[in-house]
Amino acid sequence: MQDFGIQILQIPPFDDAIREHWEVSAHDVDLFGFSALCEPAMQYPWSLCINVAEFVTEEPFASEFRQGIANAISAVTGVQSMEEAAADVWVVSGEPDGEALVHAVLLYLVEMSPQLQAVLSQQRSTH
How far apart are CA 72 and CA 44, in angstroms? Predict the structure, then answer.
């Protein structure tokens, strides 16, 4: 993952309600950047905001991509349930390991990077 300049950082929580805060950054933050927060008091304690997801709107790839994110999250030990809360946000219940959750999503983004780069290139050329 060095080729992409990817860094996974555990950030000190900025609020007492947050138990864990993870950030993923990269040379192309639109492609690989995302955050994961754990707020234990919430119905879905984990929320993941995945930058590239807001750009993935064209079918059939959008459905394939979203299902892949869901599969990656669901495969992490400790995940009880998950749902897509917004175009770029997934929420998760259970007690997964934060680092494992971040790695699972990141591995999927890396696997899908050729297709995702094409989506981003198209978006950037039209804006």
Answer: 17
